[in-house]
Amino acid sequence: MEDKPVKIPSPALSFVPVIVLVVLLFFTIRIFGSNTLDGASQIVLLVSTAVCVLIGMTCCRVSWQMIEAAIVQNIASVSVALLILLLIGALSSSWMVGGIIPTMIYYGVQIIHPGIFLVSTCLICILISVMTGSSWTTVATIGIALYGIGKVQGFSDGWIAGAIISGAYFGDKVSPLSDTTVLASSVTETPLFKHIQYMMITTIPSIVITLLIFLIAGFMQQTTSTDAIMSFTQHLDGTYRISLWLLVVPAVMGILIARKAPPLITLFASAALAGVFAIFFQSELLHEIAGAETRGAEATFKGLLQMFFTDTNIETGNETLNELVQTRGMAGMMNTIWLIICAMCFGGAMTAGRMLASITSVFLRFMKRTAGLVGSTVFSGIFLNICTADQYLSIILTGNMFKDIYKQKGYESRLLSRTLEDGVTVTSPLVPWNTCGMTQATVLGVSTLTYLPYCFFNIISPLMSILVAATGYKIKKIKDEKNQDLVAG
To answer: What is the pLDDT along the chain (489 residues), one digit of tens a residue?
Structure first.
């Protein structure tokens, strides 16, 4: 079997594992509801992987060694992301128990008017994500604080998470510090800042429309009364030691990011510093978490470790706040990590069996015009986001698949690099089992399907990419550029 060349399956046969996945997920979500990600979705992914392996080995002459190698390579490609997830669990817990996020919520609800909360949330996340280049860090820090402010002011989970994720993925898409921005420009061999500049043609209209929607929606939402907000702040003040000194922690994190410290170092240092501040400012809460009768160093140490690695439940005297300040620590990320590993198995099996290549060939049939080419690229990217469950793999696979086609048709590489960001980067958090979708849902405690309809920037961006391509605005052929250079010379 190993000596025979791999047979490329037909698109119809290649769609079978995807159809099995979608059908099983439909029934799983219907039966388990919000508890789907506790294990049911992982089993569904493994069953779909088994179907893919069966087709690959029996119909396409793919050896088990090839499938296993592809799966191992896929899992290895997200190993750093898995470590980041664990540190994000420790970071979000330490910032909550340590009082950093409660302090942000305490002052934030007094500063941000409910009418402009949604648009302010989106703008704040835009600013932070552009500076950090990371949607994950933005959501896990300021995003959690803004989510708390929104809950106190009476906004629904979907609207708050949609505003946070829309803003966070603006920076993830256009920041020169973003991994995806650098990756998309590198894969297509486009100069980085040329790539960023060209993206603004589709990104600016998308984010302007998004901000207008959040601005209008903010004034139409029925929010919590002033008395209720005052009650929330009093409960916060009565539970935590609120102090502006606690904002030193995010300030230090900002310095580390500005100095371009590696993400793992930045997250670890920020979580560790939050732990130190928790000892000095929230020692009573650490004792409460430890559940110890004594109040000595041993109880503090026990509570500190539990803060990092497991669930914490703090009694604030208000049921809504109790749910808000509850944390899950590093252990709370294990379902996410489990899901990602299972998704990588499915993506590896699909890749090894050449099923992804077969399916994406279907999209190539619609490339008679510019809009068709861009549309095929967008839908291929979205489809790969669904199948591979990782935005990095989707960018690489889509970029490599379309690079030669764009060259043959005479289009600039920056058109492909922009389309990759419009179709892959921003849609990754909309897929429940994608690394991005699962991470944001876990960190915010809001299911992907709940926030998906409100992620306007993420939904509008791929549509805007196709619309701009249809108009032909600022889309030049390489041969046209050469002729203009000759005329100018």
So the answer is: 444 566 788 888 988 988 898 888 778 877 886 677 778 888 988 999 999 999 999 888 889 999 999 999 888 877 887 888 788 889 888 988 999 988 988 888 778 888 899 999 999 999 888 877 788 888 988 888 889 888 888 899 999 999 999 999 998 898 887 878 888 888 888 888 899 999 999 999 999 999 999 999 998 887 766 676 777 788 888 889 999 999 999 899 888 877 878 888 888 999 999 999 999 999 999 998 988 666 788 889 999 999 999 888 888 887 777 877 888 889 888 887 887 788 888 888 988 888 877 877 776 676 678 888 899 899 989 988 888 777 887 887 788 778 878 888 888 999 999 999 999 999 999 998 888 998 899 889 899 999 999 999 999 999 999 999 999 998 888 765 444 443 333
In terms of Cα–Cα distance, which of 122, 12, 53, 56 is closest to 358?
Answer: 12
**Contact status, residue 485 vs residue 418, Cβ threshold 8 Å:** no
Tell me how far apart the alpha carbons of residues 476 and 420 are, in angstroms, rounded to a whole number: 18
C-alpha 283: how far from chain center: 33
* Cα–Cα distance, 479 to 42 (Å, whole number): 49
Dmax over Cα atoms in the chain, in whole Å? 85
SS3 137: helix
The alpha carbon dihedral of 418, 419, 421, 422 has a sign of: positive
- Between CA 335 and CA 347 the distance in angstroms is 18
In this structure, the chain runs to a length of 489
7 in the Ramachandran plot: left (φ > 0), alpha (ψ -120 to 50) or beta?
A: beta
- Backbone Cα Rg of the chain: 24
CA pair distance 95, 315, nearest whole angstrom: 17
Beta bridge partners of 312: 327
- Measured from the Cβ of residue 111, the count of other Cβ atoms closer than 10 Å reads 8
Report yes or no: 214 and 119 within 8 Å, Cβ to Cβ.
yes
Rounded to whole angstroms, the Cα distance separating 60 from 175 reads 42
Tokens 């279907």 found at: 362
In one-letter notation, the amino acid at residue 310 is: T
Pull the structure tokens for residue 399.
């970029």
pTM for the whole thing? Answer: 0.75
